[in-house]
Design a protein that fits this description.
The termini are far apart. Helix 4 runs parallel beside helix 5 and helix 9 crosses helix 10. Strand 6, helix 8 and strand 7 form a beta-alpha-beta unit. The protein is α/β, with parallel strands linked by helices and 477 residues long.
Length: 477
């Protein structure tokens, strides 16, 4: 893939300055009109996206609809229905010492924003943030992944058809293009990708004191305790893990299963995989519902993780077949993985699912807390005490109880990580706020009680100020 021209990038960035200033005063109707144009152009290319995803990594039309188009359409639907309400200044009652003033939070566009999207969900993780940025009144420059060239090219045509370059621009390319973009003083950067690259983005943003949203990843753990509905857990986890062939930032990375239900759980998972993708290895490889690994390099990485675990003594329960030339790895369940195996420390991001037997929940919690904070945590249990313990004693970007992955699709919840798994939030109103500056506005009234605090500081005035300070020991009404 050719790299974007650095001068064209700079020209687009400079041209967006005047637009960003003009859009600062844009109305809800104007912003909604932009989002609608994007929606209509997107849906007009529905079938073309099927073909593009098939070329890039054999993603089925059903998965394109469910995991690419659906999230973007949900973002758009929320914007169309709620943007006027989101944009209204929010009044706040005065605190004790600010009696007599009017206070409100005003939502302003950040200005010119940069969106760097990943390859695993190249459409939804590119156009989703773009919808939020447009709703907040920003201009945008987008950098999609070079690893999905057919989808990126189609998105580029849509952006060029819908927007002028001084409004929204898309630049294709690899690391040099990203580097050129990160040298520019954007007002906000929204990055989705790995923690290692997220650190580079944050470092670049610091040179201009630009705010950042980092949607990263990590090893999201799942716990299946002795009270769990094992059949439902298997059905749901086999969907969440092998959706997009495991190339999902919130996919279950590994599963802790109580010893008393482990055999039942493994058997249920194997049965689900056979029912969904084929009864044997050959049938599964022919399945049109299994997305391929994105490229040979990532296939080799996953094959290396699997081979390392097996070489150390791990047991493959089902799957394990690898065809690097076809970017294929079978849905694989693996257990009895010894300490030191790379699969236990590296984010998997593929169709390999380690199953780890446990007996005491405290041991699981200790293992989770010893690792970097994950993007998601999944608890399968019908014992409320276990659920409460897991949620209270661990930290993660998001969590699901007796479900997995689905919290990403809940537009009224903030989606984001914590520490190593990211910072900031996306989706719905949270996405609107991410791309907005919450500006505090205070207006004085004729009462002007603040004059009581003006010098000269006589003894009487000191007593008055002390009285006010002492009154703050009382609880708020």
């Amino acid at each position: 893939m050719n790299e974007a021209d650095v001068q064209q990038i700079r020209t687009a960035f400079d041209a967006q300055q005047a637009t960003a200033l003009r859009w600062r005063e844009s109305s809800a109707a104007e912003r909604i009109a932009r989002v609608k144009r994007l929606r209509d152009a997107l849906m007009a290319q529905r079938e073309a996206f099927y073909e593009a995803f098939q070329r890039d990594y054999r993603k089925s039309p059903a998965e394109v609809e469910a995991s690419e188009l659906l999230p973007v359409m949900e973002e758009i639907r929320q914007v169309l229905g709620a943007l006027k309400r989101w944009m209204k200044p929010r009044r706040h009652w005065p605190t004790t010492t600010m009696l007599g003033t009017y206070a409100a939070v005003q939502y302003q566009p950040r200005g010119r924003v940069l969106i760097i999207a990943p390859w695993n969900y190249p459409l939804s993780l590119c156009f989703g943030p773009l919808v939020s940025a447009l709703a907040a009144g920003n201009t945008a420059i987008i950098k999609p992944s070079e690893m999905t060239p057919a989808v990126s090219a189609l998105m580029a045509r849509i952006i060029a058809d819908v927007f002028k370059t001084d409004e929204v621009a898309l630049f294709e390319g690899s690391q040099p293009t990203s580097h050129a973009l990160l040298q520019l003083p954007f007002d906000h950067i929204f990055f989705t990708g790995s923690p290692s690259v997220g650190k580079l983005v944050m470092t670049a943003a610091a040179q201009h004191l630009a705010s950042v949203t980092l949607e990263l990843g990590g090893k999201s753990p799942t716990i299946v305790d002795d009270t769990a509905n094992v059949k439902l857990a298997a059905e749901t986890l086999m969907w969440g893990k092998f959706l997009n062939n495991g190339q999902t930032c919130v996919a279950p990375d590994h599963v802790y299963v109580h010893a008393s239900v482990k055999a039942e759980f493994v058997a249920a998972c194997r049965q689900v995989l056979q029912q969904r993708y084929g009864a044997d290895a050959a049938a599964q490889k022919r399945s049109p519902d299994l997305t391929r690994v994105v490229n040979q390099r990532h296939t080799q990485r996953l094959a290396g993780l699997l081979a390392d675990a097996v070489r150390r003594g791990a047991v493959v329960h089902t799957g394990g077949e690898v065809d690097e030339a076809q970017c294929y790895i079978a849905p694989t369940l693996i257990e009895q993985i010894p300490a030191g195996a790379a699969i236990l420390s590296e984010e998997i991001f593929g169709p390999l699912l380690p199953i780890i037997e446990y007996r005491e929940l405290d041991q699981v919690i200790a293992a989770i807390n010893a690792a970097p904070k994950p993007l998601a945590l999944y608890v399968w249990s019908t014992r409320q005490a276990n659920i409460d313990q897991m949620l209270k004693q661990t930290s993660s970007g998001g969590a699901c109880v007796n479900h997995c992955v689905a919290h990403f699709a809940h537009g009224n919840l903030p989606f984001g990580g914590v520490n190593n798994s990211g910072m900031g939030s996306a989706h719905g109103e949270y996405g609107f706020k991410t791309f907005s500056h919450e500006r505090a506005v205070l207006r004085a009234s004729p009462l002007m009680l603040i004059k009581l605090f003006f010098p000269p500081y006589t003894q009487g005035r000191l007593r008055l100020i002390r009285l006010v300070v002492d009154s703050l020991k009382l609880p708020m009404l």
